[in-house]
Amino acid sequence: MNAAADDVAIRARGLTRCFGKLVAVDHVDLDVPAQRVYGFLGPNGSGKSTTIRMLCGLLTPSGGEIEVLGLKIPAQADELRTHIGYMTQKFSLFEDLGVRENLEFLAAIQGVPKAKTKRRVDELIEQYHFGDRQRQLAGTMSGGQKQRLALACAVLHEPQLLFLDEPTSAVDPESRRDFWEKLFELADAGTTLLVSTHLMDEAERCHRLAILDRGALVADGTPRELTAQLEGRTFTVETDDPRAAQRALASVAGVLGVAQVGNILRVLTGAEGVTPDMDRALATTGHKAALAAAPPNLEDVFVAATRRDAERAA
After folding, report:
1. How many angstroms separate the CA atoms of 176 and 173, rounded?
2. What is the CATH number of domain 232-295?
3. What pTM, to 2 d.p., does this model score?
4. Mean pLDDT, range 249-273, rounded to an integer
5. Segment 47-104, tens digit of pLDDT
6. Where are the domains of the chain?
7. Long-range CB contacts (< 8 A, 24+ apart) of 304-310?
8. Taking each helix axis from N to C terminus, what angle separates 114-127 and 99-109, rounded to the nearest 10 degrees?
9. Superfamily assignment of 8-227 in CATH?
């Protein structure tokens, strides 16, 4: 089950999951490249976790086809489990066991040969900087330390594919940076990673990104490809009365969103050529306002993609 870097680790076609009348995942097509960090970006309730659970074989789809590491899912889910790791946003290890005890216990559960366990646990304790905390109870550690331990346990059996569901939602920025360095080290070593997040700065780190909204896939590409699609449609406004300018711009046809960032407004339009209308609207406020083109970012991409989806659903 070894894959070349240009292979697809996960392929899904028409992936659908319904809970009664609720369509949680709506005919999603995915191609996740091997040995890369692939991001799932979307708000809570967008279908990210449900999709991951289906790709893992933990939840049976209502429709569609899934192939993960060359295996048909859910039919071959039992065979897949030895090749994947899974880490959730909630710390799920044993808080009354120490760091080494957690690793040794997980090694036994995951079937790591006893002859290999000590060497593997020693490797992880060194790689994840637990040398002076081997006996510390997991329940007494900080959020960032728990996160590192959970990741070490998830890769204990050296999986080819790692699923991470909102893994950094409860840790500080410095711990998040360290955590992402570990993810890139894993990708460099040949692991494929699928990471769900609702944080834009994390999404920007991914090699490739899918945006989910209301269970539908509304965008898919590299961060650079996705932002390039919005060239000429993003602006900033500097004014001494941001609130008045925001109200004026929100009424302009073709303006998709106006967000205040400090004393500056960030404006997203649905198409090019709206600048004259925005200038006229700003003039009605009676305050000085400087409108300027700005490079698009992933938050702009997300707003544009989800607004299009909302308009189609209306």
Report:
1. 5
2. 3.30.70.100
3. 0.88
4. 93
5. 999 999 999 999 999 999 999 999 999 999 999 999 999 998 776 789 999 999 999 9
6. 8-227, 232-295
7. 304/230, 304/233, 304/256, 304/268, 304/270, 305/211, 305/213, 305/218, 305/219, 306/211, 306/213, 306/218, 307/256, 307/257, 307/270, 308/218, 309/213, 309/214, 309/216, 309/218
8. 140
9. P-loop containing nucleotide triphosphate hydrolases (3.40.50.300)
